[in-house]
Every structure is written in C-alpha cells, then in structure tokens.
Amino acid sequence: MAHRLALAMMLATCAAVPAAAQVADLRSTTAFRVCADPANAPMSMKDGSGFENRLAAKFGEWLGLPVTYSWFPSGMGFITKTLRAGTCDVVMGYAQGDELVQNTNHYYTSVFGIVARRDGPLADVDRLGDPALKGHPLGVIAGSPPATIMARAGLAKDMRGADLFVDRRVEDPVGELIEGVREGSLDAAVLWGPLAGPRLKDDPDLQFTPLLQETTGPKMFYRITMGVRLGEQEWKRQLNSLIRRHQDEIDALLHEAGVPLVDDYGKALAP
After folding, report:
1. What is the architecture of the domain spanning 111-210?
2. In the CATH hierarchy, which top-level class contains the domain 8-108+220-257?
3. N or C: which end of the chain has fewer CB within 10 A?
4. Model-level pTM?
C-alpha cells in the first residue's frame, strides 16, 4: 500500500471483504479525501512531508479541492478501514493489479534496487545472480519479490530479513537496513526504489542501483496507480484525465523527490 507499496507483496495479504460490502458513489465533492499511512516515509507522512503528500496536494489543486486525510497504518485491514469504509476516496501509490481496489492508470513505474556503499565491494553489482554477492551479509524485506530471487540464487544464508508488516510509527525497517549498510553490518540491501531512492538522493556514501537486468521472476518493477472504490468509474476517469494532462509535472515532482523511475517494461531508467 504504495502504501504498502506502497507494494504488491503487501497488497496481496491485505484483508479482503465481499464485493457486496462495496458501496459506490461515496466520493466527496467538497474535498480530495486521501487514504494514507501516517508514517510511511518517504511516501506518506502525517506532517505532509512525503512525496505522495506533495502529489496529493497537486491533485487537489488540479481538482480545485482542499486535501484531507484518513490515516491508518499500512497492512491488514487498511483498505477495509479507509477506502471501503467511505472515510476517503483515493489511495495514492497503489501497485497495479490488486483486486481490493479499482486502479487508475499508472502515473509512474519504479523498481527494486541494490543499496550499497559507493566505495564498497558490491558497488558494481546490478543483478541478484551476480556471484559477487555470495558471502556478503545482505538486507532484504522478508517476503518481498527480490527475496525470492535471492533465495533461488543461493543467497539464503547471506540474507538478513526485516519484517514488512510493522507499525511504522515506531519501527522503520527500510531505514534500519539502510543504516546497516552505512555502518557496515550489511554489505548491501535490496529495497523498493520509492522507499530507498529519496533517502539516498543526496547521500555521499551510499548509492541505489536499479535491478534492470533480472531475467527470472518475480518481476522487479511495478506500475503505480491510485486506488479507488470498485464501481466508481466516473471518478477513475476523472483521475485518469488528470494523470494524462499533468504527467510531466508528476514526473518532475518524483524526480525531484529522488524516486527511481523506469520505463513501463522495467528495462531502462526514465529520462
């Protein structure tokens, strides 16, 4: 749940509810009501500092509506307690293809990558099958797509997993893995780009290398959309129109934030 991915691995385990529980036409006409995690840095933050907060502010501006939030921690029950409860109308940063919501068109595509020290032994590694990774302590979010590839590549004994489902108001697994690379307890960490890239944008010591060379599944790139309630077709079309008309501005905001953007096929970095 972009926020969660903001992510496919989180979305797949969110609690589903029967389709009959859906209530259409709950959208507010007086506010752009956003469902978000209050502590999912650097994506969404209750103080408004996340890049998805800044994107939401842009959409509110384009719609001519004030932005309001329904805050709830990412993970189990997020959609049920927010979007489906009618307390908000859109989830920012939602991975394409999940059945709990109706997806808008995607407004960016990003990728997992390797965080390593610029002067470290793994600085040149750009694929998880590289033999150079073996024997090095490697951080990864347990259950994430790259963890599967790493295990298949014989790196299970080198992996140091961090939990995905935590209360980010008190825990920061991505930040802890990055800090592990910085202070040397880890030689690298494999992380989702929108969570890692903005933290490393101006870092003189650490780098983020997108995983663009992987040839086996699961895929390392994901198209990111907004999630709206099932059946709210007019609302989806309105958001799709805004995405299409303002894509250049969206890209510029994401680039400025340090989000690694790739083409729609995950084969090359976007300009």
Report:
1. 3-Layer(aba) Sandwich (3.40)
2. alpha beta
3. C
4. 0.89
